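Can you give me the bound-state structure? Components:
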Amino acid sequence: MASEPTDVDLVREVLAGRVDRFEILVRRYQRLVATAALRMGIHRQEVEDVANEVFYKVFRSLGSYEPRHALSTWLYRITVNAALDRRRSRRHETLGDEIPVGLSDGRPSPHERADERQRAGLLQAALRRLPDRYRVPLVLVHVDGLPVEEVARVLDLPEGTVKSRLFRARAMLKEIVRRHYPGLAPAGALGETS
Amino acid sequence: MMRLFRRDGDPGPAWAETVLSPLRRERADCDVVADVMARLRELPGVHGPGRARYQPGLAWASWLASGFAALEVLAAALWGLASRGEVDLRQVWGLVAPLGRAVLLLGEILVGVVARIAAAGAALLRGFWILLEIAGPVLRGAGFAAAACGALSIVISLYVFANARRVAPAAGFRADPFHGGTR
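Here's the bound-state model for the whole set.
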């Protein structure tokens, strides 16, 4: 059985004119891109549009891809930028759902179950309160699980800057959770934060 | 190492991991393969799978190679016929001579075109040189005039400054530079 072509091989083939080989790359990374976009605060119904846009941009700028870095790092970078662009263009539309009604005081109404998705929705609302420059490294490190060095490459920032933004982002998130979403705080952490 | 950089208010990575854990379990599944590929095929210069891209360099080379191959076949066939005595050499010459004339004519045309382009370029260069020769004295004159004007302006400036110094008010030691006096 023939082994799977590597990302670099596929990129070379696409650049040599075999556009059909790009399909393999899309198939390989579409879940990663969609999940990253979702975690960057893109609504679930818009994730597909963002993924489509990301792969289109990837194809258009494939010539500038540097094979010394993993393709996934480059994809993360394009996804983060696409998600931020989308959020900026939709900011006026999404302003209304920044804080879910009835949950902003941390007391879920009896009709709403605190299931996983709801909790994730609350978290997204809490994260939206953070400026992009703090939210993005926080999500990439603590949600996507990327090491700081890779986040530095994705965001094209020095590692020290990423670390200092992480400190600040965690402190800000802690304050947001304490003030607006106390239900999200880990058990036993409320007393510590106040 | 992380602990060294820890700052006030930072609850630490463990806190963030715990709080953000529901987001970590969030997954998005989508299938954009068909849409992306359809969009890409609409781009100018992008062809669908299985369709060869037109490459001008390759086309030229293949035309040239097939031309030489045809010539070779023709030459070999004629040589074979002539060596077996099936065709008279004069007949062969009758075939080859017009071909040679055509090649010579093509070469002449090519040389003529190149010569005309070279002649036009040379004429342009010659004209430019003549213009430079004509404009030389004018340019030299303009240079002299500019230098004379510069020297004149220096003389006038010297005169103006000398005159200004002569008519300026005298300054005493008691003059206070901080309250409107002069030194």
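A couple of observations. The CA atoms of residues 130 and 136 of chain B lie 10 Å apart. Confidence is low (pLDDT under 50) at residues 1-5, 172-177, 179-183 of chain B.
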